[in-house]
C-alpha cells in the first residue's frame, strides 16, 4: 500500500504524521511538494531522510494536479497495490489512514472515503461548506454521502489510469472524482473517521470563494445552460400563447424549441467529459426526458394556472423551479 500526501507549504505536522505512520505501518509514503518553495525545503528534506519519496512541482499547481502527479508516478513504477491519499496538516489520524488502507484491500473497485460526521466543535466554514456540497452532490447524482470534502480517500491500483484522466487541477478535482465514479464503474463506500480540526482549520489552503466556485462548476454550468433555455422557453411561451390562446400548444411549442437549444448546450458544454457525448446515445434519452418533463410541466401549470388561478407568469416560475433539480439529476444519471 502507498500513502500519498499532497503538500503545500507544510509545517512540522507533516513530519509528525510521517513518523507516526512509520511507527504503525511499513507502507510506502509518497509526498508531493506542490511548489512550496525554498522556504520549505528543509521539511521536505527531512521527509526524504525519514524514508519518503518526495516529488516536487516547481510552481504551485493545485491539489488535483499534485494528486495526479502522484498517481502517474505510481503507474510508471508499476505499482501493484492500492493507494491512500491523506492531507499533510495533521487532521487525518494514522489509525484512520490505516482503516482506509484496510478497506481498500477489502473492497476492490470502490472509492473508499474517510467520512467525518462533524460532531463537536467544527469551524463554521467547514460545516457549511460540506453541507452545501453534500446537498449539491445528492441532487446531482441521486446518491447521498456524508462527507463530500474529505481528503482521506483510498483506491485500488486498477483505478490509477482513471484517476489521472479526471479533469480538475485544484480542489474541484475531488468533487469531479465523486461525480464521475459511477459512470466509470466504481462504487463509493464510506468508512467513519474522527473529525479533527486544528487551530480552527487555519492550515487549510482552501479558498472559500474561488475554490467553491471550482467545486460547484459542473452545477454552475448547468444553471447557466438552463437559465438561457428558460428565458427562451419563457419568451416563446408568451408569444405562442398570445397567437394561439391554447396553453397546450404554447407549452409544447416553447419547450420543443428551448429543448433543442438546451440539448446542444448540455451535450457540448455542461456534461461533456473532454469530448462531446455521442448523439446516437444521448439524443433519444434526452428527448424522452423532455417528453416526461414537458408532461410534468403542463400538468403543474394546468394545476397552478387554470385550477388554482395563479397568473401565467407566476405559474411558469413555480413550475420551472420545481422541475430544475429533477432535470439536472436525470440528465447526469440517464442521458450523459
UniProtKB/TrEMBL annotation:
* Top-level taxon in the UniProt lineage: Bacteria
Domain (Glycosyltransferase 2-like) spans: 2-128
* CDD domains recorded: DPM_DPG-synthase_like (cd04179)
Entry keywords, A to Z: Membrane, Transferase, Transmembrane, Transmembrane helix
* Residues forming coiled coils: none
Localization of this protein:
Membrane
What is the membrane topology noted in the UniProt record heading this document? Multi-pass membrane protein
Question: What molecular functions are annotated in GO for this chain?
Answer: transferase activity
Which BP terms does GO give this entry?
polysaccharide biosynthetic process
InterPro entries, from UniProt? Glyco_trans_2-like (IPR001173), Glycosyltransferase_2 (IPR050256), GtrA_DPMS_TM (IPR007267), Nucleotide-diphossugar_trans (IPR029044)
Ribonucleoprotein as a keyword of this entry, yes or no, is no
Q: Where are the transmembrane segments?
A: 246-265, 286-304, 310-329
Q: Which GO terms describe its cellular component?
A: membrane
The residue ranges of the GtrA/DPMS transmembrane domain are 221-335
Cited PANTHER family: SLR5056 PROTEIN, UNDECAPRENYL-PHOSPHATE 4-DEOXY-4-FORMAMIDO-L-ARABINOSE TRANSFERASE-RELATED
Output this protein's name.
Answer: Glycosyltransferase
Organism, scientific name: Cohnella faecalis
